[in-house]
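Let's sit down with a protein and look at its sequence and fold side by side. We need material for that, and I hope you will provide a protein of your own picking. Once you have written the record down, we can walk along the chain together.

***
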Amino acid sequence: MSEERYSDRVSAKISDGIRRGLRGESECVVTDAMTTAHVGGRQRVMTTPAMIMQMEETAQEVTRPFLPVDHTTVGYEIFVRHRAAAPLGTRVRISAELIAVDDRRLQFRVEARAGDVTVGEGTIRRTIIRLGALDRLPTG
């Protein structure tokens, strides 16, 4: 979907404050549990799934203050490049900017940096859901 198709705001029924340009940041230190060591890697560097998890959590926090208490966001599409290694103990800063809003669908530009080095970057799409909606899905 092109960015031009997106409106600036989410339906007022859900939240008035969600709009393009909202930003958030978080920081983490690469721990052993986040490295390739647990999957047999010889070098202890941040795994791609660990980096993406940090990006997802940061994106989710951008809109949390604007959502009703009975709503949340869930990810449904991820386009991320892991560009550089972040060794064990590295401090990584994650940023997320809301770049597109189409009713309940949200697109974020995300980036992970260790100092001046871009560790990863890309886009994440999330959708707003009512809490409990996933409870109705079939299991097993």
About this structure: The chain has one helix and five strands. The longest helix spans residues 48-63. The radius of gyration is 16 Å. The first strand starts at residue 23 and ends at 29.
